[in-house]
Design brief:
CATH superfamily: Thiolase/Chalcone synthase
Structural class: alpha+beta
Distance between the termini: 47 Å
Bound molecules: 3-hydroxy-3-methylglutaryl-coenzyme A
Number of strands: 17
CATH topology: Peroxisomal Thiolase, Chain A, domain 1
CATH class: Alpha Beta
Strand content: 15-25%
Radius of gyration: 22 Å
Number of domains: 1
């Protein structure tokens, strides 16, 4: 019999510092409305001097283990996904193992598998599918696997990407018969195109991005993946014919959110494509005018063309769109407005934000996950929310943690960004947390990172 596998619980780690978006805008001579309203970002989380993607991952894992009272011997895998790992050879997962053993006891996790997956912001979704397939196959020797998405989104100072930075880690607890979300593996759709919208050469700490082009790539790949997802629903008779809408089968959706407005672009593009078959589509066109013709443009060129953007913007203002957006997407962005981009972690933070801000009964609802990673690949998949979910989400505490952060000045932000603080010059001294202690300087350990749990 097919096993039910999925996400049993999750834990989120957000750095304790943030930069106010209006302050950044003023310092850069930009109208603040462009960042707060245009992109939808109010605050950006900024890692302190003792933090990196590895400490954030370990903090999320520790929180997950503590709140579920997990015994290390019940953990089969710690699988990390990141695109901002500090080492090109050693995976963060192994650093995380070492950090957790400082708390739970030496060698207590030496039995685990500990891979790292990289594919820009979609990496954790690939890692999750791998681990769930492994559990479903029955090859696992222990009950739990932990997948951690951890990233620091960082662009050059004064670049157009600067206002879409942020940082976070999310740890997902996976098992058979999960309490939170059961995965629907048969429907998953992929959309992959070898492209150069965003990348980070090994020698750089900041990403190189062609901003508008990257938006087009996101929309193109998402279309390929959601088309495949829909075809799979048709194959399994969930959608009865090509004429039925996909959106009607999804109760909530969590999109990758590099900035909240991007999710609005993505959801609008998704609905425009989905609703063309809608009996009332003609009525919608009568309000907003006809769709612009493609005129031989490639998909990316079309998605970033002025005509299409204007059409999508008009569509985004109509009641039919607003109702659907408010019901299925808006709650996922409440936390994201206060965090910024966090690459692999973002789509899972959106999911946590849905649970942290929704009031309806979500039992048995279908939650769609639309994950995108530059380079480029999109995954469209779904989960069914489980009856025990209410107990699980009580302890997610995302919004409370966001309200307890410290605002930093532009000067401190720039010093942290440029690595001018030593690891022991943190803005908030670490307490009950993992910290980067020092970086090796000798022949045999040059560049090696030493981490410590600070009581
Ligand atoms: P930009 O090109 O300077 O912004 O930077 P814009 O001109 O497109 O304006 C953005 C919005 O602000 C527009 O809204 C403007 O009208 C509005 P829209 O019309 O589209 O609804 N606006 C204003 N609103 C109010 N008051 C004002 C005002 N002025 C303008 N005064 C861009 C935006 C995203 C390109 C830039 O920030 C960037 O390069 N960011 C990094 C790249 C990125 O996030 N790409 C997203 C897709 S790729 C992706 O998601 C993958 C990624 O996460 C990486 C990975 O996979 O690892 C990035």
């Amino acid at each position: 019999m097919k096993k039910k596998v999925g996400i049993d619980d999750l834990a989120v780690y957000i750095p304790k510092l943030y930069l106010d978006a209006e302050e950044l805008a003023k310092a850069r001579g930009i109208d603040p409305g462009k960042i707060t309203k245009g992109l939808g970002i109010e605050k950006m989380s900024i890692p302190d001097a003792h933090e990196d993607a590895a400490t954030m991952a370990a903090m999320a894992a520790l929180q997950l283990m503590k709140k579920n009272n997990l015994n290390p011997k019940d953990i089969d895998f710690i699988h990390v996904a990141t695109e901002t790992g500090p080492d090109a050879a050693k995976p963060i997962s192994c650093y995380v193992q070492g950090m957790l053993e400082q708390v739970y006891g030496e060698r207590c996790l030496d039995h685990i598998g500990a891979p790292e997956t990289k594919f820009a912001c979609v990496g954790a979704t690939y890692a999750l599918i791998d681990r769930l397939a492994y559990i479903a196959s029955g090859w696992n020797k222990r009950k739990y696997a932990i997948v951690i998405a951890t990233d620091i989104a960082k662009y050059d100072l004064y670049s157009s990407g600067e206002s879409t930075q942020g940082a976070a880690a999310v740890a997902l607890l996976l098992k058979e018969n999960p309490r939170l979300l059961a995965y629907e593996p048969e429907f998953t759709g992929f959309g992959t195109v070898d492209d150069r919208d965003f990348y980070r050469p090994i020698e750089r700490t900041t990403a190189v991005v062609d901003g508008q082009y990257s938006i087009g790539c996101y929309l193109r790949n998402m279309r390929i993946a959601t088309d495949m997802y829909k075809n799979n629903l048709i194959k399994f008779n969930i959608i009865k014919s090509d004429q039925e809408n996909l959106s009607d089968k999804l109760d909530l959706i969590s999109f990758h959110s590099p900035f909240p407005k991007m999710v609005q672009y993505a959801f609008a593009s998704f609905l425009i494509h989905d609703w063309r078959r809608f009996p009332r589509w003609d009525n919608i066109l009568s309000k907003i005018g006809p769709e612009p013709p493609r005129k031989g443009l490639t998909n990316v060129e079309f998605y970033v063309s002025k005509d299409y953007k204007r059409f999508r913007s008009r569509f985004s203002k109509i009641e039919e769109f607003r109702d659907e957006y408010n019901a299925k997407v808006a709650n996922s962005l409440i936390a994201l407005k206060l965090i910024g981009n966090s690459y692999t972690a973002s789509v899972w933070l959106c999911m946590a934000s849905h649970f942290g801000n929704g009031r309806d009964n979500l039992d048995d609802k279908r939650l769609g996950v639309c994950s995108y990673g530059s380079g480029s690949s999109a995954i469209a998949c779904s989960f069914i929310i489980q009856p025990e979910y209410k107990e699980v989400i009580k302890k997610i505490e995302l919004m409370r943690n966001l309200s307890r952060r410290k605002r930093i000045s532009m000067e401190v932000y720039e010093d942290l960004h440029e690595g001018r603080f030593k690891t022991d010059e943190s803005v908030i001294s670490p307490k009950k947390e993992f910290a980067l202690d020092y970086i090796g300087k000798e022949d045999k350990n040059v560049g090696y990172r030493y981490y410590k749990y600070i009581e």
